[in-house]
Amino acid sequence: MLGSGTSTGVPRIGNDWGACDPAEPKNRRSRVSIAIENDAGQRILIDTSTDLRQQLLATGIDRFDAVFWTHDHADHCHGIDDLRPLRYGRGGPIPGYAASETVRRLRQRFGYVFAGQFGYHTIVELDTLDRLRMCAGFGVASCQMPHGPAQSTAYRFDCDGKTIGYATDFSEITREMIDLFYKVDLLVVDCLRREPHPTHAHLGMALELVETTRAGCGVLTHLDKSMDYATLAGEVPANVLVGFDGMELAA
Length: 251
Prior knowledge:
Metallo-B-lactamas; 8 helices; Phosphoribosyl 1,2-cyclic phosphate phosphodiesterase; globular
């Protein structure tokens, strides 16, 4: 887990920790993204968060075999320039994937990343998810989730007999989500706060998705300043973990 925080991070600018204990390192949250690696060492990135450079420096990661985006909101894609050093030494662009509308919006905003400019190489070769079933050794499945008036892409990756689901930025549980995540080993799930929110899952909804899908282990992410790590860890069921920056899990 590269980043586990909401769009403003924790603490917010102004050193605003909210209900989070500043003395607990796991409460310091950068914007959400995750890295997934299989037994062969192939590695994929989900979202280029605003804090991607610091996340990769902190974890020592300097290579990805592919990049996936959930949607085009700033906290999930505005770190895209930090992919440029990962392009060095490669024989070609990094493969990148997203839903059709996200692809359109990313191309509109970051055209130089996907087409090169002024002698600079193309950084990412971007394509839609329409026909994608395998990537870098991972089986890939996805569906669209309601994210208030927008949509976010849910992902399921299968490899080495293990499965991980990623569901960030959703505001409603759909049948397609339940089918996609059914019996995954790990389910990383949006959990902004305890109270309902118009565009994000709250604690009750996050726990409902873990229970309904019968996921082996749920991991909460996209946490805001009201979600103190130690307090929340004492509230959740035994099969649910509170995510934090730098967290490593084996499915």
